[in-house]
Amino acid sequence: MSNPSLKIRKVWSQVEEIRTVAGSADGDSPLRKVAVCAIVSNPCAGLGYVEDLSPIIDESSEIATYLGVEAARLLGEPVESYGKGGIAGYAGEQEHINAALTSVFGDAFRNAIGGGAAWITSVTKVGGPGSAIDVPLAYKDDVWVRSHYDALTITIPDGPLPDELAIIAVVANRGRINARVGGMSVAEAREKAVL
What we know:
Blueprint: E1 8-18, E2 31-41, H1 54-75, E3 81-88, H2 94-99, H3 103-113, E4 121-126, E5 132-139, E6 150-155, E7 164-172, H4 186-194
Parallel strand pairs: 3-4
Antiparallel strand pairs: 1-2, 2-7, 3-5, 3-7, 5-6
């Protein structure tokens, strides 16, 4: 981008590793969840109602590619779950961060992490520095795999400022430890995808 509307001020990352739940491990690898957040300028902040949000939508692809590549690198193993989210600073509106997370973002994010067939779970809100947001996760190839329903709580200490957007990509290497509520398994989802 020669003169981007979404200028990155900061990239903030978080890695969580869970080894046991309720004192028990299920024999699989630890659950790793990674969030990568881009704190960017909001070109619509402070302007009141703006009809055309295409500057945000169009540039979100490049941000998504960067976030996806970095999230997969930090995860260090194949991505099984994904989610996206964001916070618009107080001089913006929720629609601004939603514009940053449309299918333009989603398609680029999927490509960056090695693919995914399922709809990407998402959450957005308006908030300020230190606001917490729970980004939902689901299995990347079929949203009906219950073992992968999860979330990661993210708090960015100094963002977003009022005229910024916090654009968040989250990935995980597996489903919940000791998941046991039934439903379609990963193996069944893979078999279904082949048929």
